[in-house]
Amino acid sequence: MRATLVIPTLNEAASIAHVIRAFRAAADEANRSTFRDGPIDWEVLVVDGASTDGTAAIAAAEGARVVVEARRGYGRAYKTGFAAARGEVLATADGDGTYPVERIPEFVRRLRDDRIDFLTGNRIAHVTRRSMTTEHRIGNWALNVFLRVAYHRFLKELPAGTIADSQSGFWVFRREVFDRVHLSQDGMALSEELKIEAVLRGLRFVEVPIPYGERYGRPKLQSWRDGFHNLLFLAEKRLRVAREGRQGPPAPFGRGEDPGVPP
Fold first, then answer.
1. What string of pLDDT tens digits covers the 263 residues of the chain?
2. What are the domain boundaries of the chain?
């Protein structure tokens, strides 16, 4: 089996080598033990937002395939990465060292053994004051509450009956997911959009608690601006979902709805 770890970066020179090495060490160990009867051919794909600190060169030196995406946006970077990825299974993590990339092989095995389509990490379960600011925690709480209320009809069918962390960017999922989900967001709202779409389209969905570490360098998230945009998107998306009964669902990402990798 072939799999791809997609990492969006923007000036992550201080951390990207650490992230790639931590993942590679775990993947190599898993291939010697968990997957010894069928080792996974892992690709590390870094989607760099035209960093000026040498992030792309460091990632390439660590063996990653680098795609430069000059168009701005967290979601834009991920959509470009998804289009370029070669794996049958995809995993995601930020380049700042906050997500537990060493646990990705464990979650790939769970995806396989439990026949899951989409697995997402729940940072809220183990978040600390050092890893997430107070305003960031308040923003996450508000978005999660709104999601639970507005989408309760759909979330109640999940194993936990809800999504605890709608903003997490740590996912492991099958490539076939793209044949079902619609992705429209180029910003931070892609995190919630992908989860909502996975639920709406009836994919086998599970959320697992994960540790969330203190990031390297200064945060790029603008809590109030990004939080307001995400809240607005959740409301607009709910209205669009209500109209799907008359208009039908939008085109899935995997069927050419997005321009994908830039020339």
1. 999 999 999 999 999 999 999 999 999 999 999 999 999 999 999 999 999 999 999 999 999 999 999 999 999 999 999 999 999 999 999 999 999 999 999 999 999 999 999 999 999 877 766 667 777 778 888 999 999 999 999 999 898 899 999 999 999 999 999 999 999 999 999 999 999 999 999 999 999 999 997 766 565 555 667 888 999 999 999 999 999 878 888 999 987 655 554 43
2. 2-244
pTM assigned to the model: 0.92
Using CA atoms, how far residue 164 sits from 122, 167, 195, in Å, is 6, 9, 11
Reported as half-sphere exposure (CB side, CA atoms, 13 A), residue 186 has a value of: 11
Neighbours of 234 (CB within 10 A): 20
Contact 22, 62 (CB under 8 A): no
Which residues touch 36 (CB under 8 Å, ≥6 apart)?
none
Q: What are the DSSP E strand ranges found in the chain? A: 2-9, 41-48, 65-68, 89-92, 118-122, 171-174, 205-209
CATH architecture of 2-244: Alpha-Beta Complex (3.90)
